[in-house]
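dumping this here before i forget
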Amino acid sequence: MKAKILFLVLTLSCISNITAANATLRPDESSLVNYIDKHKTNQLKLLEDLVNINSGTGNRPGVEKVGERVRIELDDLGFKTQWVNLPTSMKHAGSLVATHSGGLGKKILMIGHLDTVFPPNSTFQSFTLLPDQQSVTGPGVIDDKGGIVTILYALKALNHTGKLKYANITVVLTGDEEQAAKPTSISRKALREAAQDSDIALGFEFSLAENQLVTGRRGLSEWFLSGSGKSGHSSTIFQTASGDGAIYETARVLNSFRTTLSNIPGLTLNPGIILGGQTVNEDTQQNIGNANGQKTIIAAQTLVHGDLRFLSDEQKSMAEQKMRDITMTPLPLTSSQLIFNNIMPAMPETNSNRQLLTEFSDISVTLGGASLQAVPAAERGGADISYIAQYVAASLDGLGPWGSGAHSQNEILEVTSLPEVTKRAAIFVSRHLN
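structure:
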């Protein structure tokens, strides 16, 4: 595999346009670029090593093994590293935190994650060079082990050129981004504390295209709608003494949710599971439920479990209030109750975030690449940066390499993107050192 990677990197280097771009880079920035170009093979080999370690979120030993491999690299760069472990009862790996202090420049937080969505029993386990010789596949090649090696080689380039010693950088690599342990007040405590001592947060989740970055992400919450009705023989439904039953009441509420809220830009609400009958029960850990009843008996209970995605806290509050209002006018002899649980806050798009986008776009163009655009928040899900955007002056995400097929066995990295995004990150940090 190493020989194939070397062939691939050399081939791609032949079509690089960096020589022309170097004319517009400062000498110190050209040194960063040259280092990254010369170490493409090593970067890709490190990615291969990390991908070939299974680190599905529930595989705590595997996640920690990936973290220990990364920790060696950070220790060698002079970072102070530590594991911030979670309580054993939470069953997930904690966060690897690395800090480096120097100079008076901006305090920068770099965020990635060690886990993937692929458990040890998945058939998708290995880093593989594809026949086109320009892309690779494997669990986490873009989400998010590609982001991790982007961080590491940007730092290596800064260290090689003597600039890292002037940097104030904290790296937080969470162990369960794909399914954060609850409560997140505990599982994201290390990330939150790092953000509270930082000026800028940079998320190294993957990008979907070379010209896209993320200036805002939607937040996420969950809701439970329970309904009740008067049980009785089905032949008496709708009569004064029997009422309309729990299932009709829940159907009314759900349809009102749809007609009232479905056309609000950026807002979505989805009923993911619905149960109805005489008795209902959901196991939220296993994502299964059961209902008991008969077609000849009016339903006494219903339960719906759904999610709500929103652009801002204001939009979330508005939607929740409208949903509550809808439940307040039940059908005869029925009732509805609604409970909300917060999961992930929104990362609001701000002028400061857009300024970071402009800076990265200028760097991309200087390197001979594309002008960068913001991805509409509704097109990207939540990520770890969402938990801490409120604590920093500016934040930006999607800084990892681009590819396709995340969360599927078709996860693919476009190899040319890996050094490209690494150069962007290294130059950005360099420009914020003073």
